[in-house]
Every structure is written in structure tokens, then in C-alpha cells.
Amino acid sequence: MTELTLKPLFNFDEMTLPPRVGNGFTGKDILSVDQFDREKLKYIFARAHEMRELVQRVGSCELLRGNVVTCLFYEPSTRTSSSFIAATDRLGGRVIPITQGVQFSSVSKGETLADTIRTVEQYSDVIVLRHPEVGSAQVAADYSDIPVINAGDGAGEHPTQALLDLFTIREEMGRIDGLKIAMVGDLRYGRTVHSLTRLLTQYDVSLRFVSPEILRLPLNIMNTVIDAGLDVRETHDVADVIENADVLYVTRVQKERFVDLAQYEEVKNHYVITPELMQRAKEKMVVMHPLPRVGEIHYTLDDDPRAAYFRQVKNGMFIRMALLAAVLGKA
Q1: In CATH, what number does 159-310 get?
Q2: Class for the domain spanning 23-157+314-327
Q3: Which of 79, 94, 170, 257 is catalytic?
Q4: Does the active-site annotation cover 306?
Q5: What string of pLDDT tens digits covers the 331 residues of the chain?
Q6: Could you state, in order of their start, the residue ranges of all structural domains in the chain?
Q7: What number of CA atoms fall less than 13 Å from residue 256's CA on the CB side?
Q8: What whole-number distance in Å separates Cα of residue 4 and Cα of residue 64?
Q9: What's the rounded Cα separation, in Å, for the pair 48 and 69?
Q10: Which among 47, 90, 130, 198 is annotated as catalytic?
Q11: Among 19, 235, 294, 304, which has the minimal tally of Cβ within 10 Å of its Cβ?
Q12: Is residue 26 flagged as an active site residue?
């Protein structure tokens, strides 16, 4: 029998990637950004680069052939759910999509999260979970014998979004260290802000937090930034930060997190990034947004080359491809 020799898809010598052996993710849950140091980030970002090249060259592969990913979403989602589904499909795996239809599942009959997790793990190799309660991903992981990936737990964390955000910053600006990063909008309830801020404490960056008083960054996260020794300031006015920002990370005010809707009405249109405001920004900088937006970035900015939010969306698929491959030991 003739021995087959398979040529690698990528030239790893040219790409100078970190070693593929012992990635530390196989069989692990992805619950928090606190799991990622700079070496692990370097590894995931290198794998995401591979995934981008794979998609550009051949569209898909069979890396996850035979693997099943359950997307269990108790909250509405467009980008996160569809990008995990696309990521699985691009890698040749299969998806059980319990997304917009949770109300039609046994959850509507009163089934507990623990029982749902114990059930779907019987059919799956990975569970991707979004849930409205802070800490729900940890609860799911405690009951699951297969990896759980946190796709957002209430106002807590959104680690995969933070990873794609950081990856986007590096791709757009060519570096992370030395950047001036301003975060604007709902900093109190914005789990994307919470997770990204915690990742950024590993880098030499300057942070500016812009929000109404009632939507300020939680004190525990601010203390984490201060303890990391970063240059940090708070303000209520985007005009205070727009001229010096390398990254303007804008978030929507999240109506669903407000108990008092009168408070929401007071702040919902507090910030709008307009072409006039962007005339004061650097020529080399980026505007980012985790989406969806509800008016905080003017649509005429979409054609501005500094508007990176849709490139940010695409990067999400590459990051999630990398994570799925890593936790399944296929990276």
C-alpha cells in the first residue's frame, strides 16, 4: 500500500506561530477572561489567523467532523449564536440550535438549568450557553461533563466577545501595548466592557471610561484597573476623549437591564457618535461596537474606514472557530 503524505495547509515556519502542543484548553470550560494570560491570548489569536486563512482559501474543513455543538441560548442573540453556528459548520461539525426557541423547549415547562445541561450533554461534545443570570455559566459547568463556553451571563461576562474585541484591536492597530482606549456608553451593565477591560489590564494601555453617572463602570472592575497600575480616567463627555483615542469602543444603553424604565429614557440617547464628532478624531484610529446598535453610532459613519464594527463581527467567527478547535483538542 502506498503511504500518503499530507502537505500542511499553512507554512508554520513563515507564520512564526507558538507551539501547537499542550495548548491548555483541551476539555476545558471557557467561562471567564481571567483564564487568559498573554501567552494563551497569543495562542488563540494565532489559531484565529489560521482559521481566517482557512476560510479565505478553502471555505471549510473537516476538523470537527463527528463533533456536535449545542447552542443553548436563554436570551436573544444574533451575532453570537450565528457565529458559533457558522464556526462549527466551517469546521465540519454539527450544531443543535436551541437559540430563539428556548420558550418551545422543556425550559418553558419549568426545567432547571442543571437538568437541561445534564440532558443536552448526552448529545453533545461542547455546550455554548447564554443565560440572563450572572454566574449561570459556572453553574452549568459544575453540572456538565463536557466543556461549557460562556456566551454571556447576564451583566456578568462575555469572554468570547472580549477575545474577538481584543483580536480586532490588534488586527486594526497592529498592537495593543501603548494604545489609548476609550469605552463609551453603558459601562455598568455592559458585560462586553467588563470582560474587555479585564483583559486589557494585562497590557500597557491608557483607559478612558465615558458614561452617565448612573451607568459608571462597577467599582470592583475599576479597582482591578487601578490595581494593575494603568492610566485611567472617567468622564461624562465623549469630547474629552475623542481627539486622543486610538480605539473608541461604543456600547448601547441596555433597556433590558433597567428596572426603572424612566431612568432608561433619561440616558438612552446620551451619546451619539456623529460624522461631525469624528472630524476631531485621529486619522488612524478605530470605532468599535459589540452590536446591536440603537442609534449611538450614526449610520453615515459605516463607510468611514475607521468604522471597524462589521470587521469586528467577522473576527468573531474566527475566534470562535479557534476556541471550539482548542477545547476539543483539534487545534
Answers
A1: 3.40.50.1370
A2: alpha beta
A3: 79
A4: no
A5: 444 444 444 443 333 434 444 478 999 999 999 999 999 999 999 999 999 999 999 999 999 999 999 999 998 788 899 999 999 999 999 999 997 545 545 555 568 999 999 999 999 999 999 998 989 999 999 999 999 999 999 878 899 999 999 999 999 999 999 999 999 998 988 889 999 999 999 999 999 999 888 889 999 999 999 999 999 999 999 999 999 999 999 998 765 555 565 655 565 667 889 999 999 999 999 999 998 888 899 999 999 999 999 999 999 999 999 999 999 999 6
A6: 23-157+314-327, 159-310
A7: 9
A8: 21
A9: 19
A10: 130
A11: 19
A12: no
Whether 130 is catalytic: yes
Length of the chain measured in residues: 331
* Residue from 90, 131, 158, 188 carrying the catalytic annotation: 158
Percentages (nearest 5) of helix, strand, coil residues in the chain: 40, 15, 45
Q: Which three cell numbers stand for residue 123?
A: 448529545
Cis peptide before 290, with omega less than 30 degrees from 0? no
Give this prediction's pTM: 0.87
Residue 94 annotated to the active site = no
Q: How far is CA 260 from CA 66, 106, 254, 256, in A?
A: 48, 31, 12, 10
Please say if 109 is a catalytic residue: yes
